[in-house]
Structure formats: C-alpha cells, structure tokens
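ARCHIVE CARD
Drawer: 12
Card no.: 0347
Subject: one protein chain, sequence and derived structure
Cross-reference: see card 0346
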Amino acid sequence: MPIRLRARAQTTREMSPVSARIDDFDLPDIAEDDSFRQVVRKLSFYFADAIELPSTFEQLRTTAAGNCLRVLVDHLHETCTNPAIVNALLALKWHYDDHEHLGLNETKSNACEIAAWRFLGRLSEREAMNFCLYEIPGLDVARGELRLQGHDQEAAERAPLLPRILPSPDDDAQRPLGSSSKRANLLSSLSRLTNASEDAGEERDPTLAFKSLNALEIAAVADAKRFLSQHVVQKIISGIWNGDIVFWDSLSVHATKKHRFYNPHTSDPFSRLRVPKYLKSWEVIFFAVFLCLYYAVLIVRDESRITATEVVLFVWIAAFFYDELSEWIDAGSIFYTTDIWNLFDMIMILIGFTFAVLRIIGITQHNASINGLAFDVLALEALFMMPRICSILSLSPYWGTLIPCLEEMAKDFIKFMVLVVIIYLGFLTTFSLVGRDVFDLAGMAGILTKIFFGSSYVGFDVMDQINPIFGPPLMIIFITLTSILLTGSLTGMLSNSFSRVITHAREEYLYVYSVYVLEASTSNRLTHFYPPFNLIALAIFRPLRLVFRRDEKFRAGRIVLLRLTHAPIVWAIQLYELIRRKVNSEYAGLDGPKESRRRSWRRDMPQARPSSGHSRHLWPASRETNLLRPDKREDDDMDTRTTVEVQIDELNRKIDNLTTVIMAMQENQSSVKPTTDSLS
C-alpha cells in the first residue's frame, strides 16, 4: 500500500502555500527486494505527481518548490533499504534530460539529482559507499552465476570500466559503457524503463542495458556533474583514487571484483597496481623515459642507420599505442574523448608512426631527404609531449579548473573564426580582382594576413597601388573591421566565455577527474600490464589464444607473468605506503590523536539518524560484513572520534529532538482547533 505523509506534511503545508497539496502525494513504497526496474517506476510516479510547475535548480534547493524533495529524502532515509535507490534516481535524471519537453522535465532532472546527493548526505560513509558502488544485477542471478562458471574469464578481461561477464543474445553488455552504441542502447532503454509494462518479457526488459552499472558510472554517462561534485561523492572518489577503497584485494585465478575498504594486512600487494594514483604515477615515469629517448634520437640524428636508441623508441611508441588502443576499446569513445589529454596521445602516436614509416622508407631506399623529413616530423612531437608530461598538474584543483575554461574559450574562438574567414575571403577576392595588375593572389593574401595580425600600416602603404579609386575606401573598411570591430568583439567574447565557465569550472574539473578515476579503477581486468610490459603479454599470450582454450590455466599464466614483470613496481609501492603510514603515525603522535585519511574512511556511524526510531540495515548482516575481512571484527572498523565530531552529533541530536517536540505541539494545536470550533 502507498505510504502517505501525515504530521510532517501538515507542518510543510502550514509553512508554505506552494506545497499545500503535498500530503495528497503517494510516497513511493520501495521494498528491499524490489528490482531496479520497479524502483525506477515507483520514483517516476512520484516525480510525475509532485512536480507540476517548472522551477530552476536553485529554486529546488532553496525555496518551497523543493519541499517535495525534502519529504522524499526523509521518507527514503527512514524507510528505504533498497540498494538500487541512487542508481534509479540518477537513471531517471538522465531520462528526463533526454526528453523532448525541456521545461518540466529539466525540473524533474534537477530534482532527481538533488534527491540523490541529499539521500547520500544522510548516510554514514560506509553506507554511502555501498549505495554509490552497488552494481545493478541481472534478472536471473542464479543463472548468471552458472554461466559465469563456464565462461572464459580471460576473455572477460576486456572492459576495464565495467564488468561485462554475462553476455547473452539479448544483452549488449559486451559493449563498453562509453561507446556510442552502448550509450544509444541505454537511451533507448531509458525511454522504455518508465513506460514498460510489468509483464514484459525478459528478453525485452529495458533494465538489461543497465546491468553491472553502479551509481557513479550512471552519473558519469548521464553528465550528473553536480552530483559528482558533492562532498560526499568526492570522498568516495578520492578514496578510490588513493586506494583506500579497492575493487580487487587479491591476485588469483578465482579473485572476484567487489568494492571494499583496503586492508594492508590481508590484501595482495600486487592488487595495488590497480590504484589510480599509482597508474598515474607510472604514466609520468613512462613519458619521462619517452622524452629522454626522444632527445637522444634527435641529438644523435644518425640518418645512415637505425640506432639502438631508435629501436627502443619504436618499442616505446608501440607500447604506448597498444595501451591507448586498449583504453579506447575498453572505455569507449565517449569516455575516452572526455579527457583532453587523450587527444594529445593520439597526435603523439600519429607523429611517432609517421616518423617510423618515413625512417624505414628512407633507410631502405637510401634517400637522405626522406630521412631528414623523418627527423623533422619527429621534432613536432615535443609540441605535444611537453604538455602531456605536465598533465599531472591537471589533477590539482587550480590547474584542473583552468582547463575547462581554456577548452570552452577554444571552442568559441573556432566558431568566431568562421565569421572572420568569411569576411577575409570576401575582401581577398575583391582586392585580388581590383589589383590584379599589381598583386597576385598569393601576394594579396599575405598582405591581408599581415593587416589582420596588426600590421595596419601595410594596408595604408599599398591601398593606392591596388586601385586609386576603390583601393583606399575598401582598405580603410577592412582595417577598421579587423583592428577595431572583429578584434574587440573577439576579446569581449572570450572574456565572457571565461567568466561564464569559471563559475562551473570546478564541476567540470571534478567530472573529468571522476571519470578518470572510474576508468582506472572499476576494472574487470584483473591482470593489467603497465606499458611497455604490455608488449610482453601481447607477444606471449596473443598467439597462445589461437592454439589453446582460455581457461583458468591461461589466466594463471598471465598472473605469473604480471608478478615477474611488475615486482619492482610493487616493491616501490609497498615502500612508499610503509613510509607514508609511518610518517602519518608519527605526526599523529606529536599533535595528539588524529585520524589518518585511510582510517577516517573506515569509520561507521550507526547513530546517523537517532530520531528515526530504528537502525538502518542496507543489506543483510552477512552481506554487510563481507566488506571487511572475515578475520576482522566489526569493532575494529571503528575509530576514535574527535571532539568536534562528538559536539556536532550532539547538536544534531538536540535539533532532532526539538523538531519532534515542535511537530507534536503542532499536531496538538491542529487537534484542539476543530474541538473549539465545534463547541462554539
């Protein structure tokens, strides 16, 4: 039966006339065992009834127009234990964004996004992590498990962003989330998700496209940038970035992907290779070696033969290409192009391949000019390699905030240059025809280009030579347009673009940062080889796939090769983490008891809502305790709380008690008033 709002709805109705009929809305009665499809349908019914007038994002957050969201969040926090609730809210946000009628649906989209992060804000850190990283299961879990046992596990290691291990004729789960075909399928599923009948066949179930997606991945593909920029979400993403939250804790044939807090005492050290922070660090080292090889080849510049340094450079380019190709295939074109640095990578690979081809042709044909051209082409690599090495700065908030601004300004500049080119071609044609006896087309193009870039005096010097009658007035008009109108308009437009984007640059930066973390961490590929070691795995196991069946032994072989080739990297990671833990413990000992970043992530707060009258249980106890190692007690997961946190919790408790008293007084007043009226 639908749950209706009572006392709190009356209080809200008395506070604001906008929400006068909010008590008539049926709040969604979401059971713990409801499927993702059912949760989406129930929430869509509520938003269809509760939101009837368009409202801006700020109005939903700060005015009475968002009362329906406060009531919904309170209701979900007190009654809902379904783990797919955040997934459903973000899927609905994407559904309303894609709708044709943007007025009311834009309001519903903003409402879904606000409700999602407000719901997470009511939870403890462990609960928020569970909701954000919960993956939507298939319709038949038991059948899926049976299929998994007989499925090629090594073949499943192709999609680092999302696990795609349960293929079926009806499911496009093998497609990466970022690919255009996968995105189109998700959009098609969204349009049927809220309208499909309950008795639809399994083979046509629109939720199949959402299998194995967690809430953060849905938010990324739905462009829920405000949701991803919230503090509670960024704490989870930062935990994944630093390796405090991991998806793999062992490197074995039977290892399974599951989100959990990192335990250095029980986890396999080789599982730290999947931490995004260490992936980025190795990327910087890889490009630093790339730069050294680049300088060594260009400084020597031996055009008569291919040196050993050039051979190593070719190997480096090949490893770089294979790593980028794997990332593009795994993540898909949409996610891959989200990061601007991937464009630099593709250009660097293109230049490297061009150099290799020209170099081989020049050596085989003994052509000195082609060899010289090859080295000149390689010299262009520095234009992109230098910024690429410094791309590590984009992970900092300051530099990362400027990049979205520069991207938007570059887009506006390209659009404005279309108008400039049109005007330029018109004047170039006129001047070339009028002054054809004095200047040719190439000479006139050079003169107009100099004028456009500030050399106005050149135009005044040649305007009489072009044509005594039409030359001076046309040249004055052209100089006025370029030096005053177009240049001033371009400057003002770029200034407005910068000021417009800088207000939301933090959201853009955090969105790109979040997508990078998700691509690098939530991977179904257990054995991920760093370049250039990926060429070794390619050379050994790619031919074997054509001969032997890919079974557990095949995967075990990859694990052995990974341990042999990456052992020095793992030792360096272990040494770094040991020093970091030691420094953090010494620092805490000097200044009193303080929580390190890792331990603060492992704090659970069951007293988050003492006024709700019951404790929250997101999942059965057996599922919840699986987040920790079996040999660790739940009490070990608690840390000493600081004085400020205790005071904040005490203040929240007092506010909840005061709210309860006020609501009870209002109920008494509302019950006494009808009695007084009847007596009078």
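Annotation on reverse: The first strand starts at residue 3 and ends at 4. Residues 1-23, 140-174, 196-203, 588-641 have pLDDT under 50 and may be disordered.
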